[in-house]
């Protein structure tokens, strides 16, 4: 691990100021991803600004939205009574990820910004455009069973590993930022960028920008929701494919639908085309099949991950059937 | 200052790279927390920080400043073992014992989570007011602790018996 300085921030303003004043600084949430990557010499920040003790409040704001401080732990979000009652898909997604110990430390901000689990990204002996821009991508022709089928580029086929992000993508969440140039808000769906020819640029965050909170509008009152994740063992493993779905059925017809996919792309993937197929159509297996086909219509398999396409389609159909 | 097993420790953390795990083992001399993988994959390093189970290998020692840390050396009561440790012996909850300190700390933190209403992936109702500690729940909630000897049946039996009537 490369040497670094460590300081703890007591409030948002001092965190942003500290990061701006220190070249090569990174924010430290729980550290469950960053410390690991630093130990592998994949991340080499010169300074850490610990933001894990910044505001962590979870609750409904005067605007009716659910607000979660970026430093709230994944466990505290999943256990929150309001989250579990009115936003159950958030709690479900969280408890489908990592382990009890990791969820106790992992923060909301850190979870959204965790890096890919592509093994070549972790292996400093391998070629990886994300780690070393311009060096190549050993995954494209290598072991790419875990990799992306949607939105990938010849330069990078990595996936985003967050479960929480997939639920938040289905819920139209917003991410609130503070930075040297002030505060701003971005839609969660716009937070991550597709790789294109710059896979090392993963988000729209400007240098030194801090996530301060995530807010979520209430889902349609009559919608039922579910988070379904398929992985290679029952627990404590990243998604091969996951599905976050909200479905509102009235008189046998789909009144509204939201569908997001995990494990398939470099960002939580909102399947808007599939939602359009569903909305206004009869809530039947035939409709769900068409929606699932539409969701994966643009998918492009690599040598070892072709199974993800029918797998994602089946999980979409079974989740929608369960909710209808 | 970090309170470790009830005693304040002022041992200086001179290198910010020091993990909490290395700090406990090398600087403080507590060898209960084990280093299995050093990358968050096995749970052998599990300790309690302010009563919550965490992985000491992915925590920087500096992050624990001002916190209260409990390792397996500190879970016993009145000089004896915790009832959970007795149950591990009773049910053969280990073979080589390498994972055991992490299993014990993890199970104590897990029982507290159940008492606080933290749901799990297998909870029948994510919004339920309380959760029963069925063997399925125990297996899911303890999935962050691997046991290479495969003593899982004994581990689950020990936890189930200990927390039959809720956490102690
Ligand atoms: C064995 C293992 C299994 C796992 N399984 C899963 C799984 O199944 N599903 C899943 O979703 N996750 C899984 N995880 C990943 C885990 O959820 C993440 O490591 C965790 O959510 C990261 O949160 P953190 O607070 O620890 O982030 P850190 O490690 O502290 O930070 C991660 C990144 O976010 C940045 N950052 C942190 N906070 C902020 C902020 N407020 N503003 C701006 N930048 C910030 C950091 O600079 C860093 O780049 C697993 C991890 C491990 C080790
Ligand atoms: S897929 Fe992306 S992260 Fe993986 S080796 Fe290729 S460039 Fe690196
Ligand atoms: S040593 Fe910490 S999880 Fe394996
Ligand atoms: S008892 Fe040997 S690893 Fe669990």
From TrEMBL, chain A:
InterPro entries: CO_DH_flav_C, CO_DH_flav_C_dom_sf, Diverse_Substr_Oxidored, FAD-bd_PCMH, FAD-bd_PCMH-like_sf, FAD-bd_PCMH_sub1, FAD-bd_PCMH_sub2, Mopterin_DH_FAD-bd. Keywords: Oxidoreductase. SUPFAM superfamilies: CO dehydrogenase flavoprotein C-terminal domain-like, FAD-binding/transporter-associated domain-like. It holds the Pfam family FAD_binding_5. Residues 1-221 form the FAD-binding PCMH-type domain. It comes from the Bacteria. This is Xanthine dehydrogenase family protein subunit M. The lineage of its organism: Bacteria, Bacillati, Actinomycetota, Actinomycetes, Pseudonocardiales.
Automatic annotation (TrEMBL), chain B:
Keywords: Iron, Metal-binding, Oxidoreductase. It comes from the Bacteria. Signal peptide: none annotated. Residues 1-75 form the 2Fe-2S ferredoxin-type domain. This is 2Fe-2S iron-sulfur cluster binding domain-containing protein. It comes from Pseudonocardia humida.
């Amino acid at each position: 691990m490369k040497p670094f300085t460590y300081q703890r921030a007591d409030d948002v303003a001092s965190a942003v100021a500290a990061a701006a004043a220190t070249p090569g600084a990174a924010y430290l949430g729980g550290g469950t991803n960053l410390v690991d990557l630093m130990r592998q010499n994949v991340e080499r920040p010169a300074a850490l600004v610990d933001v894990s003790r910044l505001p962590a409040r979870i609750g409904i704001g005067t605007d009716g939205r659910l607000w979660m401080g970026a430093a709230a732990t994944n466990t505290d979000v999943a256990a929150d009574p309001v989250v579990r009652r009115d936003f159950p898909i958030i709690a479900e997604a969280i408890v489908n990820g990592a382990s009890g110990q990791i969820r106790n430390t992992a923060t909301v901000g850190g979870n959204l910004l965790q890096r890919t689990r592509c093994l070549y990204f972790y292996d400093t002996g391998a070629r990886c455009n994300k780690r070393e821009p311009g060096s190549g991508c050993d995954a494209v022709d290598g072991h790419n069973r875990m990799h992306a089928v949607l939105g990938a580029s010849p330069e990078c086929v990595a996936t985003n590993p967050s479960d929480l992000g997939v639920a938040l993508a289905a819920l139209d969440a917003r991410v609130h930022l503070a930075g040297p140039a002030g505060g701003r808000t971005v839609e969660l769906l716009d937070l991550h960028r597709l790789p294109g020819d710059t896979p090392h640029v993963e988000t729209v965050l400007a240098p030194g920008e801090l996530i301060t909170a995530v807010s979520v509008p209430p889902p349609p009152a009559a919608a039922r929701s579910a988070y379904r994740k398929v992985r290679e063992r029952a627990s404590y493993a990243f998604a091969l494919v996951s599905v976050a779905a909200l479905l509102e059925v009235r008189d046998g017809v789909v009144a509204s639908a939201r569908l997001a996919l995990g494990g398939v792309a470099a960002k939580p993937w909102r399947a808007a085309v599939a939602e359009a197929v569903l909305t206004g159509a009869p809530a039947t297996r035939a409709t769900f099949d068409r929606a699932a086909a539409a969701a994966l219509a643009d998918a492009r398999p690599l040598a070892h991950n072709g199974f993800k396409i029918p797998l994602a389609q089946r999980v979409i159909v079974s989740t929608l059937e369960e909710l209808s | 200052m970090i309170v470790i097993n009830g005693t304040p420790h002022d041992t200086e953390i001179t290198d910010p790279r020091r993990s909490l795990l290395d700090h406990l083992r090398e600087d403080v001399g507590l060898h209960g927390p084990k280093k299995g993988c050093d990358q968050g994959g096995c749970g052998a390093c599990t300790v309690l920080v302010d009563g919550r189970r965490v992985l000491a290998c992915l925590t920087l020692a500096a992050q624990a400043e001002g916190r209260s840390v409990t390792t397996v050396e500190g879970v016993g009561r009145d000089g004896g073992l915790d009832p959970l440790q007795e149950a591990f012996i009773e049910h053969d909850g280990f073979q080589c014992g390498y994972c055991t300190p992490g299993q014990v700390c993890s199970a104590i933190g897990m029982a507290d989570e159940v008492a606080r209403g933290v749901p799990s992936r297998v909870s029948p109702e994510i919004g339920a007011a309380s959760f029963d500690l069925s063997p399925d729940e125990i297996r899911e909630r303890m999935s962050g602790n691997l046991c290479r000897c495969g003593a899982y049946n004994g581990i689950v039996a020990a936890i189930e018996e200990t927390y039959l009537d809720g956490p102690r």
